[in-house]
Amino acid sequence: MPLLHPNRNPVSLSLVNAEKAELFRDVFPYSKISRVPFDGVYVEPRPAEPMFITDTTFRDGQQARPPYTVKQILHIYDLLHELGGRSGLIRACEFFMYSDKDKKAIEACRSRGYSFPAITGWIRATIDDLRMAKDMAFKEVGMLTSVSDYHIFMKLGWNRQKALDEYLALAAKALEWGIVPRCHFEDVTRADIQGFCLPLAARLMDLSRQSGMPVKIRLCDTMGYAVPYPGAALPRSVPRLVRAFTDEAGVPGEWLEWHGHNDFHKVLVNASTAWLYGCSAVNSTLLGFGERTGNSPLEAMVIEYISFTGDDDAANTQVITTIVRYFESELDYRIPDNYPFAGKDFNATSAGIHVDGLSKNEEIYNIFDTKTILGRSVPIIINDKSGRAGVAYWINQTLNLSEEQQVCKTHPAVGMMHNRILQSYEKGRSTSFSNKEILTLAKQYMPEFFPSEFERIRVVTKKLAASVIAKLAGAIVIKGQGNEYYPWMAQFLNEYPFVQYINLADASGKLLGSAVLDPQYKDLYERLPLGFDFSAREWFTAPMKTGKLHVTDIYQSSFTGKLIVSVSAPVTADGDEISGVIGVDIRLDELLRRAEDLEEQNEDSGR
After folding, report:
1. Of residues 213 and 364, which shows the higher confidence score?
2. What angle do CA 344, 350, 351 make, to 5 degrees?
3. Confidence of residue 2 (pLDDT cuts 50, 70, 90)
4. Which strand (E) or helix (H) includes residue 287?
5. Is 19 exposed, middle or buried (0-12, 13-18, 19+ CB in 10 A)?
6. Which residue in 123, 237, 258, 533 has the fewest CB atoms around it within 10 Å?
7. Alpha-carbon distance values, 234 to 38, 198, 199 (Å)
8. For 292, which DSSP code?
9. Residues 106, 109, 111, CA angle at the centre, nearest 5°?
10. What is the sign of the dihedral through the CA atoms of 253, 258, 264 and 265?
11. Taking the model in full, what pTM does it have?
12. Residue 458: what pLDDT?
C-alpha cells in the first residue's frame, strides 16, 4: 500500500507556534451553545477502502461502567470475534495494560490465537508507559496525543512546539522498538487543524517513510463537537477533517481512525460520515458504552457497514442478540427497551400487533427480518387489544422459553394475567403496559419461571465455593483423630474468612478435627467433641453417596444465628476410595462481599 494517498501529494505544512491558546471563542463561546460555522467549502464523498471497525469496549467502555472481570473480558472478546472478527470487519480491540487484572485479561485473550480482533494497547504519552508496552510485546499501541490548545496550554502547560517535539520523540521511539504507534489526536474538533494538527501529522508520515512502518492517527472527537455537514467549517466538520488529513497531510485512509462521542447526539452519523469521506477505521464500543455520553455503538456500525457494502457475510449479526442477553443476564445491565437492535421493544409498535396477525403484518411494522438477522422474533406490546394469545406470545418470547416450556393462550395463568390487564383499562387506563409491568404480573402468576433470590444466592455460593473446597479435599490426608493432626484448618480459615467453621469426618461419620474462625463461637462449636457422629447429617451423607461436592440449602446456623450454607466434599485415599468428608459452614454475607475476588482467583487457577 502506498504511503501517500494516490490522488494528491501533500502540501507544505508548517507549525504555527502560537504565543497563546487558540480557543475559537466564536465557535465555542462556552457560556452559550457552541456554533456550527459554514464557510461555503464543500468536499465530495470518497468512501474509504477498506472500511472496518475497531473496538474500545475494554478501554473507553470500561470508563463508563463497573470494571469487567478477566472472565467477562475473555467472554466478550470471544463474542466480538464471533460477531465480526472472523471476517476481519472488527479489526482490533484496545486494552488498558496497567493493573494485574489488565495484564491477565490481555494474556487470556492472546491465548485464543485469533487473527482478529487484534489485541492493541493504550498508553499515556510517556517513555515509561511505552517501555511497558514493549515489555508486554505489543505490536501496536495507542498513545495519548492531545492536539487542542485547550489541552496543550491549559492542561499540559506546554506550547505547541513542545507538544510536537514530545509526540514525535515518543512515536520515533515506538518505531525504533518495532511498535506501530497509533497517535490519538485528542480533542481534534477544538484544535487548530492547519496550524498544529496537519503539521504534526505530516511529520509523523515522515517518520513512517523513514522507518518503513505505519504510523496511525486516531481523530478523537472528545467532546462530541463534530458535525457531519460537508459545508461546515473546520475544526468541526467530519468531511473536512478526514480529507484534510488524507489529502493535505498525506495520511493513508487505512491508517486513519475516527473516535467519536455522543454529547450532541451525532456519534453514529459522524462515524458513518468518516467512512464515507475516506477514514477506514471507526472506533466503537459495544452498546455505545463510553466516557460521559458514550461512543459509536459497535453493533450499529456493523449494520451500517452491511448497509453501505451489501456484504451480509461480513458479520454474524445474530451474535448481537447473544451479546445483549449476556450484558443483561451476566452483567446485570438494563438495556432500554427501545434501544435500536438490542432493546426488547426496538421493533415493536405501540399500536399493538395482534399475534394472530403477525404473519400478515410483520413486514409492515418490522425494519427487517429480525429472526434471520438478529435471531429474535417480533415483540408485542401489550394493551387491551392484545388478547390472551398476545399475553402468551409475550411470555414465551420475553422469557425465552424452550418449546417444552412454552405456554398457550388457554393456560390458566395467562387468563388471569389477561383479566388483570383488561381490568386496568376498564378503570380508565389508556397507555400500553410496559415490559416491567407485564414481568411483574408474570412473576405473580407464573413464579415457576423465576428463580428465587435465595436460589440465585445458592447458585453463586456453589460456583464460588466449589473450586476452593474441591482443591482442599484433594490435598487432605487423614492421619488420626485430634486437631493437632490438621493445623492447616486454622490457616484455611484465615485465608477464607467467609468460612466460619471447618471440620473433617472419617468414612463412618466420626469427627476427626475442626476449627472455628470467630473466638466468640468457639465454645458453642465445641459442643461437637472429637468423635461426634455426623453419619446422619446431609452434608456428610450426600458426598458419601454420590462422591461429589454438595451444597445444602440456605439455613440459619443454630450456633451463630447467621444465614449459612454447608459445603462438603469427599476425601479420597489410594484407589479413589472415600476415606472421609470435609465440610465447611459458609456465611453468605461474607462470601458475597468477596465474590469478585474469588471469581478472579478461580480464573487464574484455570489458566
Report:
1. 213
2. 140
3. very low
4. none
5. exposed
6. 533
7. 9, 12, 15
8. T
9. 110
10. positive
11. 0.73
12. 65
Give Cα 510 distance to the centre of its chain. Answer: 49
The answer to whether 604 touches 578, Cβ cutoff 8 Å, is no
For residue 355, what pLDDT is reported?
56
Indicate the residue type of 320: I
Whether the Cβ atoms of residue 380 and residue 388 lie closer than 8 Å to each other: no
Residue 453: predicted pLDDT: 61
Contact 226, 279 (CB under 8 A): no
Q: Could you tell me the pLDDT band of residue 7, with boundaries at 50, 70 and 90? A: very low
CB atoms within 10 A of CB 215: 25
Going by C-alpha positions, the residue among 275, 596, 285 that lies closest to residue 464 is 596
Task: Look at the block and give the residue holding cell 432493546.
Answer: 343
Angstrom distance (rounded) from CA 122 to CA 128: 13
Q: Is the pLDDT of residue 596 over 60?
A: no
SS3 assignment, position 339? coil
Q: Which has the minimum average pLDDT: 8-12, 46-50, 192-196, 313-317?
A: 8-12
Distance (Å, whole) CA 70 – CA 104: 7
As a whole number of Å, the CA-based R_g of the chain is 30
Average pLDDT of the chain to the nearest whole number: 89
Burial 515-534 (b: 16+ CB within 10 A, else e): bbbbeebeeebeeeeeeeeb
